[in-house]
Design brief:
binds oxa(dethia)-CoA, alpha/beta, Peroxisomal Thiolase, Chain A, domain 1, 9 helices, 13 strands
Length: about 325
């Protein structure tokens, strides 16, 4: 039987800005409390980028860490994909800034914008490029500075988000075409623009000429989240031919501990199998999954052959899941 080209995660890395902001800081300016934030979201602290630190800086930090972890040199990278909704500039893509920052002058680089689902969309696209033989090694990065698009007077959103970046080095490896292969086994991507007003930024190049700030109907997004995340995770597992009992780890988008718990429960998976970092990072949008992957990998929690499901939902609404074997 002829082999199947699989996209295997060869290394992971992350970068977090130095400044850590505890929940208590918000109660100085907003009618909120550590107790409310922890009980409603699970968030205890988040990192905020320094004024002179940009999304590309975070992305480059994570990329260098992932290359180091993979034992791959920048010269061996064929493509760079950055998932972000908070780019340094309207254009060029953050990915080209990462490329320059790493001293790479060949291959291609572009950004993907699917908000909190961005990393899932980026990884699925990278998998497709590898399967098509367009690239052998791809850096896939999620990087965000959501602190730059928050309305500091809105307690319903200001306390929830953070800055950071995570990266993976994907590498083409031959598999047998079965679910025993290492690498990405399946993906499931979805969007439904009729819900675009539930979570959006009220500015942009074409509309206002300014970046704008984040607006969210939290309760409504929450309602969609558990339902859609469980459904997309189940669909991705079906596509991979694997059942919940064969799943070793879930690495969910880190927006809210209650959403993470609710989704695990719907999938019939115990929380011991779920990677949770939301307490330390807050919601870092497209960066949250690669950050969680990198933190958990650095803790030695994954062993080769483990089945990992990643799932995310965000503005759009856009949502999706990927099943991969570590
Ligand atoms: O990553 C993209 C996807 N985004 C998400 O997944 C976020 C989804 N949504 C959520 O995580 C939750 O809906 C929130 C954490 C945003 C809010 O939790 P909730 O349990 O849905 O609270 P709520 O919005 O129903 O608000 C309950 C109360 C309200 O007061 P009233 O109307 O009951 O008097 C809010 O005004 O809590 C109030 N509230 C706050 N109180 C103290 C909202 N934000 C705060 C706050 N501190 N920071």
């Amino acid at each position: 039987m002829s082999g199947t080209r699989r996209a295997v995660i060869r290394g992971t890395g992350h970068y977090l800005p130095e400044r850590i902001v505890a929940n208590s800081e918000f109660s100085q300016t907003l009618d909120t409390s550590d107790e409310w934030i922890v009980s409603r979201s699970g968030i205890e602290r988040r990192h905020f980028a320094a004024p002179d630190e940009f999304t590309s800086d975070l992305a480059i930090g994570a990329a260098k860490a992932a290359l180091d972890n993979a034992g791959v040199t920048p010269a061996e990278i064929d493509a760079i994909i950055v998932a972000t909704s908070t780019p340094d500039f309207t254009f060029p893509a953050v990915a080209t800034q990462v490329q320059a920052g790493l001293g790479i002058t060949r291959g291609f680089a572009f950004d993907i914008q699917a908000v909190c689902a961005g990393f899932v969309f980026a990884l699925a696209n990278a998998d497709g490029l590898i399967a098509a033989g367009q690239a052998r090694r791809i850096l896939v990065i999620g990087a965000e500075t959501f602190s730059r698009i928050l309305d500091w007077s809105d307690r319903g959103t200001a306390v929830l988000f953070g800055d950071g970046a995570g990266a993976v080095v994907l590498e083409a490896q031959e598999g047998a075409g079965t679910s025993d292969d290492r690498g990405i086994l399946s993906s499931d991507l979805n969007s439904d623009g009729q819900y675009r007003d539930l979570l959006y930024v009220d500015g942009g190049v074409s509309r206002t000429g300014a970046a704008g700030v984040l607006r969210m109907q939290g309760r409504e997004v929450f309602r969609h989240a558990v339902e859609k995340l469980a459904e997309t995770a189940r669909t991705a597992m079906d596509k991979a031919g694997l059942g919940p009992h064969q799943v070793d780890w879930v690495v969910p988008h880190q927006a809210n501990l209650r959403i993470i718990r609710g989704t695990a429960q719907k999938l019939g998976l115990p929380m011991e199998k779920v990677i949770v970092t939301v307490q330390d990072h807050g919601n870092t949008s497209a960066a949250s999954i690669p950050l969680a992957l990198s933190v958990a990998a650095a803790q030695g929690r994954f062993k080769q052959g483990d089945v990992i499901v990643i799932e995310a939902i965000g503005g759009g609404l856009s949502w999706g899941a990927i099943v991969l074997r570590w």
